[in-house]
Amino acid sequence: MRMPLDLLLPSWPDPHLDLGEYDPEADLVALNMGPQHPSTHGVLRVKLYLDGETVVKAVPYVGYLHRGVEKLCEKLTYVQITPIVDKNDYVSPMMNEWAVNAAFEALLGVEPPPRAQYMRTIFAEIQRIASHLISIGTWGLDMGGAIGGGATVFLYCLRERELILDLFEEVTGCRFHYNTHTVGGMRHDLPAGWDKRAKAVLDRISARTWEYERFLLDNPICRQRAEGIAVVDPTLAMELGVSGPILRASGVDYDMRRDAPYGAYGDIDIQVPVRTEGDALARALVRIAEMRESARIASTLLDGVPEGPIGALKPVKLHGAVKLKDGEEGYAAIESPRGELGTYVVAARERRGAASPYRLKIRSPSYHAISLLPWLCPGHTLSDVVVIIGSIDPIMGEVDR
Amino acid sequence: MNEQDQAFRHPLYDMVEGVARFPGVDVAFTTADKVLTWSQRNSLWVFPMATSCCGIEFMAASSSRFDLDRIGTIPRATPRHCDVMIIAGTITVKMAPRVKKLWDQMPEPKWAIAMGSCAISGDFYRDIYSVVPGVDTFMPVDVYVPGCPPNPDGLLEGLRRLQDKIRRKRAGEWVEPDRRPPPGMRAPSIPRIGDPARSPRIDDAQLDSVMHLDPGGALRRSGAPPLPPVPPAEEEG
Amino acid sequence: MNGAPPVAASGLLFNSAPLHALVLGLVVVSLCMGVAAWSIWYERKFAARMQNRPGPTEVGPWGLLQPIADGLKMLQKEDIVPAAVDRPLFELAPLLVVVASLGTLAVIPWGDGLVIADLHIGVLFALALSSLMLLPVWMAGWASNNKYALLGGMRAIAQGVSYEIPLLLAATVPIVLAGSFRLGDIVEAQAGLRWFALWPPGPGAVAFVLFFMASLAEANRIPFDIPEAESELVAGVTVEYTGMKFGMFYLAEYLHTLIASAIAATLFLGGWDMGPLGAGVHWMVLKTLVLFAVIFWIRWSWLRLRADQLMALSWRWLVPLGLVLVMASATWVVLA
Amino acid sequence: MPPRHEPLPADVAAWACEFLGVDELPPEGPFVPRDRLVEFATALKNDHDFLFFVYCAATHYLAEGEPGSDGALPDRTVVAYRVRRLPDRRRGRPTQTFPFRVVVPTGESTPSLAGVWVGADWQEREQLDLVGTVFQGHPDPRRVMMPDDWPGHPLRRDYAIDTAHFPWR
Is C39 a member of any domain? Predict the structure, then answer.
């Protein structure tokens, strides 16, 4: 007769658990989830050690999408980097563009004109909605299966996302990978009448968010699947550098948009949704509340977009001539849909005034969130693992870079 | 015919060949073959090898606005059930063996679509140490769908092209192999700043050290055999 | 049994009982296979409408030829038998899974006398055969030598064992009320719209819901489809099957759903009888298809339960509920 | 014009000056000697409430005489850390970050901070993999991004961007 599993497992999960010290009678199964699995959100691979269906140890393996972006950025000019980093967090490309350009601008001492700041903020908020829509949709897919109710949720979410992609396509000409930010401002101006169309879309989505919330709260199966699953300890999350909705769902009231304002966020009052449960359901509810809040912020800012230039530098200066001082290093971060997305830059040292960075590190929130997995999975069943991965919403392009 | 040249042959075909010796039966079989081809091309279940951005666009393609299900295409999670592998996204050196394995696990007849410039040629990650410069370096590709990422319409068009290819192949017509986009697009789209420590793209010494893996030199980029000549287009009418 | 005729004397299509069974069996099996195949198209259209998209449109008018294309394509696929599988079991499982579902068709009465084999223990036979589905599923899970398939097979066994009991208990209610195991007698006991789902106001309706839920679990449909949960187990037990072998599992899933709907319609919705509106095969088919559509509706709008929650639901709630229902219906019979 | 660097919090800066025995801290963060790094980090976390681990980034610099080097110091890695404390609304303190750096000559190692902030575990693993910095006492020193048998560390300056890896490229 074996001891019950919850007595065997340590109360505080140990990511470096030595399996030899676990119950010697246990017949553990090592199950590789990924790198190609329907619910690992790309190419994440998690090696699960299962006792029955209960996870004893989870080891995430990343790097299956390591595209050497940081090395590539060392070979490109500051202006050329923007389209490269677009592909990192491929669910919210606007955020990547803003994160690198904010770092370059801070080091260069350039401030974008107010119109560009407003456009960036509006784009970022609309992008946040699109990103959270994918997040909620794929989370439903994880819980309900690709052939079943999950697919219905997913397709409803994608339906709304298409409206947002249309808005961006009107401005930049692309469905995503916009390449619209540049050092010191924007490349594309708002077309005439765009603000009215954007507002209509935002109103529509903001109304639809209630549908998603009802789906989460009124559905007994969803509640059963997600409530109390993978409770994140706020101290652990902070030490791991986890930020964004995961941290806010654990009761930490921290949002860079309000606490360290950048862009046009200083001009507006932001309500940050915070929940204290810290479980998978709370994370999804925080995301839904953020979608509603983002729609409000974007609608409000759309009323007051100032007239004026959209770039601080002359176009001729943009190509190759943006240079930073030697040896200078700096860091700038923005609040992406997954948390703090920052860029650490060391300016060129090899040749004086070269137009490419010496070292560029992208501090991606998903990478930190993935490191939370070994803490969250033990003690849960295999079915919960997909819910957990869905609820921390990793984007592998950003994890591996 | 040696064993290596023998492609997969379904036992049904052997049976059919025996019966087809009777006079008049071949007409019926030609019709039957058309029906079988029709079924193959109208039921392309895809295995989404979705690694990165193109995977999101693939999801959009199966969403309500574009709906791949219209032409009978549904995604399945296991390669054993699938007919088409859509490689959507960058394939890295770490991922490539897995892609190859999944491709080998798919049952014949099978086709592959390289979706997006990363899968076609590596795009601007082409020269990076960890990225495979195009999936056709290690597996066959039937249709290239260029774009970064391609629109869902583009993917739909690619599937349509694949359907057409299946039909024409089975009808015995010559199908010009789908080629990569022209050389101008193969080069990295963004020029590099000079790198003092830059090395030649493939070190010949490194190649020679593993030559036993590659006796014919087919993997050697410079010595790759040229594509078969294209026959002159037949005049219509 | 001692000498009780296995086939009812009246209502034969032909004078000879074996001929009747043969002809009717061929008709019913081919029709049900056809319906199961078309139901794939039906489900895809149904799901597409729920999701604001058109669904199959290009293959034939309204995409009607889609299941034919799928089936013919599967016939042409390579039949891969991985090196590490347990070959006899691996090959046998897809056959058995279809046979087990088709066997159930033998006792389902489609009309008055329109039954292939009118067993007087029809209910037991049907339920026993439908629970036999578990065996090939587990065979497939074990023989595939794949961890995902193994987990799927294990889940299927656990789920099947848990849901057999509420299924049987719920089926006991009409048996007690009608006083017979014969499906034909049960239908006749509901004559005049006194459906067991409606008439004894308490136990019948609850038993119907219970039976329907347990049938969903038996047929591995959402929210109880954990043996082949795509998002966790990739494709569950069918993960290593290619071509028509997978196609058989696919078909058997729909057949099983169809048969579960047919049994539920017979036991609780009055079968072929529609009271003042007359009686006939069409009513039985209509009721079956309506239940079938309800299963799709549930499938495309609900999420999936977790394995342990599924077991808890069965053992904690459904089994006691079933016991209470049996006692309540027995009390009803005694008092009435 | 926005500030080029986020200003260092005054109370921590004063403490760090005292700790390191210097008069002024560079805005990019002070250089901490390797032997006192863990002590410094522990004090930052426990006494100054810097709970949030932001990043750890290593930069490789070539030695003097090699092409492309700046010619002052030996072949080395500079590891930059940044930690943050969250806003304290009761005391009216905004969110503040504190960066610090450590110089690691090639061939030597630096103590791992994974015992102080658990988040340093994965961050240091990434730098170990990509830049090749050796962290002493790291709980799990495996490669993260590259395959286990990969030769070299891609983000070092002497690693060519298009290094071929047979047979996949």
Answer: no
Domain boundary assignment for chain D: 10-136
Nearest-CA neighbor of B68 among B100, B46, B85? B46
Looking at the structure, tell me whether residues B79 and B128 fall in a common domain.
Answer: yes
Nearest to D117 by CA among D59, D32, D54: D54
Asked if D111 contacts D124 with a C-beta cutoff of 8 angstroms, the reply is no
Q: Are B158 and B115 in contact (CB under 8 A)?
A: yes
- A205 and A224 share one domain: yes
Q: Is the separation of the CB atoms in D80 and D56 below 8 Å?
A: yes
Whether the predicted pLDDT of B228 surpasses 50: no
Using CB atoms, which residue from C56, C65, C79 is nearest to B69?
A: C56
For residue C249, being part of any structural domain is answered with: yes
* DSSP SS3 for C20: helix
* Strands of D15-145, DSSP E: 52-61, 76-85, 96-105, 109-111, 134-136
More confident residue, B204 or C270: C270
Does the structure show a pLDDT above 80 at D166?
no
Asked if C301 reaches chain A (Cβ–Cβ under 8 Å), the answer is yes
Query: Which chain C residues are Cβ-neighbours of B80 within 8 angstroms?
Result: 80, 235, 239-242, 246
Beta strands in C262-319 (DSSP E): none
Q: Which pLDDT score, from 0 to 100, does residue A121 have?
A: 92
Q: Which domain holds residue C288?
A: 86-335
Residue whose token pair is 């002052």:
D72
Cβ neighbours for B222, distance < 8 A, ≥ 6 positions apart: none
H/E segment holding residue A59: strand A54-61
Q: Which CATH architecture has domain D10-136?
A: 2-Layer Sandwich (3.30)
Query: Touch between chain D and chain C (3+ CB pairs, < 8 Å)?
Result: no
**H or E stretch including A235?**
helix A234-239
Dihedrals phi, psi of D31, to nearest 5 degrees: -90, 125
Cα Rg, chain D, nearest whole Å:
18
SS3 A147: coil
Question: Would an 8 Å CB–CB cutoff place A233 in contact with chain D?
Answer: no
To the nearest 10 degrees (0 to 180), the angle between helices A280-303 and A194-218 is 160
- pLDDT above 80 for C326: yes
Residue in chain A lying closest to C303 (CA):
A144
Q: Are residues B166 and B214 in the same domain?
A: no
Task: Find the domain containing A387 and state its range.
Answer: 69-400
Go through chain A and tell me how many residues it has: 401
In a domain, B188, yes or no: no
Give residue D9's identity as a one-letter amino acid code.
P
- How many domains are there within chain C? 1
Instruction: State yes or no: pLDDT of A369 exceeds 80.
Output: yes
Q: Is C128 among the domain residues? A: yes
Torsion of CA B19, B22, B23, B26, to 10 degrees: 10
Residue A171 tokens, joined: 């401005």
Taking a C-beta distance cutoff of 8 angstroms, is the pair B51, B89 a contact? yes
**Angstrom distance (rounded) from CA C323 to CA A382:** 32
d(CA C233, CA A147): 13
A121, C270 in Cβ contact below 8 A? Answer: no
User: Which residue out of B9, B66, B81 would a mutagenesis test of the C interface target, given it has the greatest number of C Cβ atoms within 10 Å?
Assistant: B81
What's the rounded Cα separation, in Å, for the pair A13 and A330?
36
Place of tokens 């654990």: A250
Q: What domain range is B208 assigned to? A: 195-237
